Amino acid sequence: MREREEPAATYVAMKLEETETGEIVGRIRITKERSKSKLPTSSEELRHKIKLETNTFLMLAAKFRSKIWFENLCANDFNKHVDFVLGEKVYRIQMASADGTTTQAMQPSWTLVLAFEQKLRHEAYKRACRGGKKIVDTLEEVRSDASLKETHFITPLALEVASRSKGGAAQQVCKVRAQ
User: Fold this and answer.
1) Record's superkingdom (predicted)?
2) What is the pLDDT of residues 22-40, one digit of tens each?
């Protein structure tokens, strides 16, 4: 493991404590000298932060071999998760036009994508801890949970798009009036 991909000792200690108490939290908190890191601003930064989370969980899996949560957990499980979030189901989501002949990119805000990604991980960890399930399985469950996606992604995205179109319509009216 390269040094750049190695989670901080304090972060691993925090996750160890969460595991021992039986409640893993889905927040990524990268600390160095007690200062919080910035949220990822690009897809590659998100991939890097998830890679740190992956390495942390693989370390936890090595320590807690008897915990069902970590059974069969591998880096590819988190890669599937981040690929889902950055793929055509979330970040690159498209919608059919009214006549159904073309598609249009919806372009969700980066803030919405990050919030949804965090919600998915948090829910997966919660289901694993409370239901005595494997994280491998719960990550898959939350990605296919239509209700979770509707509540925490599709509805906020629809509001974003409506807000953008109102702003765009107002700008068009102003341009027409100025002429």
Assistant:
1) Eukaryota
2) 777 766 655 545 556 789 9
For residue 92, being part of any structural domain is answered with: yes
- Burial of 120 per CB tally in 10 Å (0-12, 13-18, 19+): buried
What is the tally of structural domains in the chain? 1
Residue at 176 is within a domain: no
Compute the distance between CA of residue 90 and CA of residue 111 in angstroms, rounded to an integer: 12
- Domain of residue 46 covers 3-171
What sign does the dihedral 65-70-72-74 (CA atoms) show? negative
What residues pair up with 35 in beta bridges, in sequence order? Answer: 32
User: Residue 105's beta-bridge partner residues?
Assistant: 94
Q: How far apart are CA 87 and CA 143, in angstroms?
A: 12
For 1, residues 6+ apart whose C-beta sits below 8 A from its C-beta are: 55
Q: Which residues contact 49 (CB under 8 A, 6 or more apart)?
A: 28, 30, 37, 40
- Structural domain contains residue 117: yes
Q: Count CB atoms within 10 A of the CB of residue 128.
A: 23
Q: What is the pLDDT of residues 119-131, one digit of tens each?
A: 999 999 999 999 9
- Report the distance separating Cα 164 and Cα 159, nearest Å: 9
